[in-house]
Amino acid sequence: MYDVEKIRADFPILAREVNGKPLTYLDNGASAQKPQVVIDAITQAYSHEYANVHRGLHYLSNLATDKYEAVRGKVARFLGAPDEDEIVFNSGTTEGINMVAYSWAMPRMQAGDEIILSVMEHHANIVPWHFLRERQGVVLKWVDVDATGALDPQKVIDAITPKTKLIAITQCSNVLGTVVDVKAICDAAREKGVPVLVDGSQGAVHMPVNVKEIGCDFYAITGHKLYGPSGSGAIYVRKERMAEMRPFLGGGDMIREVSKDAVSYADPPMKFEAGTPGIVQTIGMGVALDYMMDLGMENIAAHEAGLCAYATERLTGLNWLNVQGNASHKAAIFSFTMNGAAHAHDISTILDKKGVAVRAGHHCAGPLMDHLGVSATCRASFGLYNTKAEIDTLVEALELAHELFG
Fold first, then answer.
1. Which residue spans adopt a coiled-coil conformation according to this UniProt entry (predicted)?
2. Of these four, 6, 119, 244, 302, which has the most CB atoms within 10 Å of its CB?
3. pTM of the model
4. In this structure, are 85 and 146 located in the same domain?
5. Over the stretch 162-186, which tens digit does the pLDDT of each residue have?
6. What residues are labeled active site?
7. How many structural domains are present in the chain?
């Protein structure tokens, strides 16, 4: 049984007050809070087990290396990857996508080649491709969402031409919560010989993921949204694609031999992990993934589906609130504006006075904001520890804001 109150007790920050009110933390889409087991693992690692990995032969180095490398298998299990050697550690999704841009795309794309994106993409899945547009003349092709915020996979498939070299698509919009049928896109793209990169920053948080079933070539995740530390992350890279990639960063640990005249590289995935990594961050991410897998991703998804349904009912019942996007398949992420002159930042400030933490701004999704015709929204994003009572608190705070600005 999914006991949300027991789960909440695992997160010490949820017991605090903000502005004299119990904290209602609804900014999980930006970064999730950490359970005590993750905090304890980080403290243990720094206090009693810290050393650099891979390079040492002493006890602490071997211990740190074992704990660090064990996370590779945890990520593989979490993502359903066939082989842990298909997992590359990094600082998060931004670095993962940039690695694909520099290591895989840049060497094989030329002027006129196309990359297909949806208008919902986060800047982390836009800006690296703009680098290729600016520097190599690559063409970015955009696919719009419909009036509900849903993305028809067939529109993405129909955008493929002989010049398409990559599809880079989110599995779940960080603004609208829209869930994309990435498997349908991957199935069709594979038939046409087009690789697919999936931004799983939000998707992996809210639903079970199996990259083998999805059929993608790349799948990027970030640890701090998965109840782990910031500065942690990983990307799944299909072996066939990994063999096509050149190193992105050069330095220690990613080499086999270095001389004055030549360099030879380590085998993947080490080939793509230069320098001293985020050792403790990665260990913490592994503990966070254990925590989620112990709860069960299906159970988390079911709990959040209940929150999504209830929040939809409560928020759409406010006739002065404009909820952006109501796709039939979405995660518990809600962006909204308010009728009248109230700016998203002003709404967020009033909510904060009631202890309700939401995001306000463009959410690193400029093209989507343009498509929606707004400059900014407030966003309430729910996680595995949120409750229906917190949705009621959000609504009460919104009603106060409406009174003040109405």
1. none
2. 119
3. 0.97
4. yes
5. 999 999 999 999 999 999 999 999 9
6. 364
7. 2
